[in-house]
Amino acid sequence: MYDVKGNLHRVLDTLPEGVRLVAISKYHPNEYIEAAYEEGQRVFGESHEQELKVKHETLPKDIVWHFIGHLQTNKVKYIAPYINMVEAVDSLKLLKEIDRQAAKCGRVIDVLLELHIAEEATKYGLTLDDCRQLLADGEWRQLEHVRICGLMMMASLTDDREQIRREFTTAADFFDEVKAKYFADAPWFCERSWGMSDDYTIAVECRSTMVRIGTSIFGPRVY
Ligand SMILES: *Cc1c(COP(=O)(O)O)cnc(C)c1O
Which of 8, 196, 197 is the pocket-test mutation for ligand 1 (most atoms within 8 Å of CB)? Predict the structure, then answer.
């Protein structure tokens, strides 16, 4: 098997204090997750509701699951009973549905707002102005079963390290703006989820608190 344990420690050794690892286990089998678990890793990220369901049911119950992919509103109900954090909330509609389903389960679900800063034409994520608008609207304040804990973003897929750095810096500056304006009294609003296998060393220099790393730990994914 792939040297999951060795890789995990190599990654953890490079992370400064205050940066947490979300081990991205999508498309990888339970035995890989168990190997990381045996080394003490507890936070794992998945991006498909069905795959996550099976893993959640068959793996240790103290695993902290983050949903990192694009989440369709009609899938929220399936993960609401157990998901710990939904990282990629990119609309008020989705935020409201998470709130509604969390209420049904008597839970409060932690979420991050996903920003779209990268130059790629992906459909997902809020532009900075969309995000400002969502927060200014204020409807989110009525949602008692979601807790907005910070921001998440993906940098452009490029070899241009300076461009990646600019994008992370934009996200970090935007975090400060939003924190000051809406979450100054909310200590839980503290997460900056950026950095993946290829760019996490830059991300931690740009104030990431949470890196989402798959390939560097588990190897290439077999789709
Ligand atoms: C798959 C994925 C990752 C992990 O990517 P790696 O390059 O394998 O580290 C991180 N974040 C999101 C949102 C992903 O979908």
Answer: 196
196 within ligand 1 shell (Cβ under 6 A): yes
Question: Please, which contacts does 93-101 make with residues 24 or more away whose CB atoms are closer than 8 Å?
Answer: 95/134, 95/140, 95/143, 95/146, 96/139, 96/143, 97/73, 98/145, 98/146, 99/143, 99/144, 99/145, 99/146, 100/145, 101/76, 101/77
> Which residue has the least CA distance to atom 15 on ligand 1?
69
212 lines ligand 1 (CB under 6 A): yes
Q: pLDDT tens digit string along 139-190?
A: 999 999 999 999 999 999 999 999 999 999 999 999 999 999 999 999 999 9
Please provide the average confidence, as pLDDT, over all residues in the chain: 96
- Separation of CA 106 and ligand 1 centre (Å): 30
3-state secondary structure labels for all residues of 57-115: HHCCCCCEEEECCCCCHHHHHHHCCCCCEEEEECCHHHHHHHHHHHHHCCCCEEEEEEE
What is the gyration radius of the CA atoms in the chain, in angstroms?
17
